[in-house]
Each structure stands twice: as C-alpha cells, then as structure tokens.
Amino acid sequence: xxxxxGRGRQILIAGAVGTFALLLGLEVVKxxxxxxxxxxxxxAVTIALLVGCSACVALLSxxxxxxxxxxxxxxxxxxxxxxxxxxxxxxxADHFQELGxxxxxxxxxxxxxxxxxxxGLLLLKGFxxxxxxxxxxxxxxxxxxQAASVYHKAELSGRAALSAYFLExxxxxxxxxxxxxxxxxxxxxxxxxxxxxxx
Length: 199
Known about the structure:
Elements: H1 6-30, H2 37-91, H3 93-109, H4 114-124, H5 129-136, H6 140-154, H7 159-171
C-alpha cells in the first residue's frame, strides 16, 4: 500500500495517533506517583518523537519501494526500445550497406578526395565541424575547408542541401496506388429496351 497518499496516508496518521495515545496511556498508568504537568509534557514529546520517527521511516520505505518499481519499469522500457532498435537495424542492414556504397560512389563521381568523402559521411551523420575535427585528429579549420570543397564540387549550398540530396527520396510518402477498375467479375449488361429476359 502507498502510505503517502489517499487511504494509506489516513491509515498511517490514525495508526500514529493511536500508537501515541496508547504509549502515553501506558506510561501514565504504570507510574504509581502522580505526574506533574512538566513530566507529562516531557513524556508526551518523547513518545511523539518516537512515533513520528517511526512514521517517517514507513513513509520513506514506501517512497523507496515506489521509486524502485518505477525504475524497474523504466529499465524494461529502455530494454524493449533497444531491442526494437537492434531488430530494426538488423532488418535494414543490407539496405544501409547499399545506401552507404551509393553515397560513396556519388562522392567519387563528384571528384571528392578520400578525406573529403569521410568528412562528407560524418556531416551526413550529423556531426559538427568540431566533432569531426576531434574524430579525425585535424583542425576545425581544415574540416571546414574540406566540407566547403565537398559542397563546391557537388554544387550544393551547404549541409542541409547535402543531406537533402541523399535523403529526400527516402522521406517521400509512398506513391498512392491507382484505384482498382474492377473486381474481375463479369457484370451482366442491361437489357435493351423492349426486350425481356426470362429466368
């Protein structure tokens, strides 16, 4: 039960109040001497602290169990997403290889050097000039120059145009199929005027 809200909270509060009253009553009953007001207040505060600490422990335990359950659900969702992504990549692995080969052939047809081709591929993957420079161990100025050379040889305006050149065909909606002209069944022609048919 969740002790932090709704009926669980009401039960916890009622239990804490009842425990406090019970413990305080037992202390008063078992003492033979009369209690002064100060002693009674001191004992009440001590018992209240004890009961309050117990209630806080119960609340914290409930909250930790709830968070642990939420973390388990999140881990399960992440595992399912990763499994789905892995399956998707496995199903399209051959297509990815064909696409990569076609992109490299196009870079070669534009007359790009090997270094420019590698920079172009990294640009298509979404890396920034700074990230590409770190990956290739080159300066950012060199990467910018190579990227500009790719755009110039391809006669494209920039990164967006380069991505669109290769990807726009993949993102087009499927071509709608023309409506069927019939269901393949022969339909009887209507009788000519003045002619009757017999069953």
